[in-house]
TrEMBL record:
Keywords: Iron, Metal-binding. The keyword Iron applies. One of its GO terms (molecular function) is metal ion binding. SUPFAM superfamilies: Clavaminate synthase-like. It comes from Nocardiopsis sinuspersici. The lineage of its organism: Bacteria, Bacillati, Actinomycetota, Actinomycetes, Streptosporangiales. InterPro entries: JmjC_dom, NO66-like. This is Cupin. Its cofactor is Fe(2+).
Amino acid sequence: MTDPGHLFTRTLCDVVGREALTTRLSEEFVFADLGADAVRSLLTFDDLNELLATCSPEPPRLRLHRDGSPVPVDRYTETAASSRNARRVVRPEALYRELRAGASLVLDSLDRMHPPVGAAADDLMRLVRERAQANLYLIWGESRGFDTHWDDHDTVIVQVEGTKHWQVHGPGSRPYPMKNDVDHTHTPPRDADGELHLVWEGVLRPGQVVHVPRGWWHTVTGTGEVSMHLTFGFTRATGVEWAEALVRRLFEEEVFRRDLPRFAEPEVRRKHQGELAARVAELAEELDVDGFLTERDARFPRRTSFSLPWPVEEGAPPADARVEFVPILPPPLSREGERVAVTVGGRRYRFPAAVGPVLEAIAEHRTLTVAELAGHADVEVERAAQIVSVLSRHHLVLVR
Ligand SMILES: [Fe+2]
């Protein structure tokens, strides 16, 4: 059985090849069969029942769709009477009735509710180096929850239970359509006979994975039996984001803070335009894409997770306590004189140089006991425990 925390960087990369995968990402459809075993620990019906009861997700985070339209929430939820703030609570019997009638259940951000899915989402983030979210889709029967459509982000679909029929039609009339776009007309690709073009058609079974690039049209239909799949969605940085970072730098430039010379002589207006264009070109040269992406990585958010009681108590954790690294992307460590510095979630941390080897070891292995960490970092166990205690207070490691 695959560890969900390595589902993409190891299992998927072993099947497809890491380079083949990253070069085809967002550009081509990808199919891979990881085997049912690889996804068994991700999500079971028992897990789903439990999290529906304990997290009691409300619409719109949980919603039903049928034949391309949302099912009115009054049909399957009621307002909780005992709560101080009115909450919508799913009525189990109403949910069963709607699912039996062919509705599909969508549950957003499952990665925040179910640790194995969270671990898989984190692993995908390490592969694509963008924020990813996992949504659940559950349907019985032959109906389709959604019409033929495209999504404004890249997706990796993982079939967990049952089967689902997919038709992937490919990019439409507007290549690389964006979430906040200026033109929303986008029609699907058709063959000469007017039929929807087909890039791939097939039935996904448990353990099979497809990548559908942003903007690619697809039609997904039930096969008559149950289907449960996870859609991992992520939005990659585009040239627009790079240009926005460039624009933010323009506030530092006096010539850009000045008013445009609307009422000046034509010659003055032309000169001003020339100055603006020249400075933009200079700054665009300075803000190279690699530097922009490094800055973006340094702002990569951390998961909200907690490590009580260690960050509050005075004592250090025991040698057999498990230490987990919090930052999703391994941050580069830099030396600043006698100190080591690391940027996580947009914040810069500086520690005594002795912390460096411990940080490096936990960033590489992600989870280790205090004793193992001491071994990798070549420091005394007591010293490693003290450093772990400090790192946990800054939410850089969790102690279990
Ligand atoms: Fe979709």
